[in-house]
Amino acid sequence: MNLITNLYTDEYFMKEAIIEASKAFDAGEIPVGAVVRWNNRIIGRGHNLTETLNDPTAHAELQAITAATNTIGGKYLKDCILYVTLEPCIMCAGACFWAQLGTVVYGADDEKRGYSTLTGKIFHPKTTIIKGVLKDECTNLLKSFFLKIRESDED
Questions:
Q1: Which pLDDT value is given to residue 39?
Q2: Share of the chain above pLDDT 70, in %
């Protein structure tokens, strides 16, 4: 393997998604971040904006998918990889289905609202799912956010 191949790992792109999640954290949003990769290039970035936009659909994945489709000028992302710090919810899994994402990589599990809490096929049949990439870092960011919220509620 050459240096370029070693540089652009799933961990590298998940760290970029964590940077997006940190932006959400700083803005008082649930810290979820996402990036879309195409040929070792990020073509879409996003983080949760549900509070900022007062929009329950403004999830990180949807922001990143919209940015990516605008970048390539088309609605299908068959050759792309979505990296997201938290397991996608059913809405975001549906968006991944419609965008026909080639691969979805996520960090932390979402045991309450993640797509895996439901049965049946949610992602496109050709989509590969990879879970647990930088799971501890993604989970810790979420835990820190909710701890901060609880502490501020006590004041």
A1: 92
A2: 94
Contacts of 105 by beta carbon, 8 Å cutoff, 6+ apart: 10, 13, 14, 81, 82, 83, 84, 129, 130, 131, 133
Predicted TM-score (pTM) of the model is 0.92
Residue 116: is it exposed, middle or buried by C-beta count within 10 angstroms (0-12/13-18/19+)? middle
Active-site annotation holds for 151: no
Residue with tokens 């990296």: 83
Looking at 51, 61, 137, 151, which residue is catalytic? Answer: 61
Question: How many Cβ atoms sit within 10 Å of the Cβ of residue 121?
Answer: 9
Return the amino acid letter for 39: N
**Is the CB of residue 22 less than 8 Å from the CB of residue 39?**
no
For 31-53, what is the mean pLDDT? 97
Q: Long-range contact list for 73-78, CB < 8 A, 24+ apart?
A: 75/99, 76/100, 77/36, 77/38, 77/101, 77/102, 78/102, 78/126
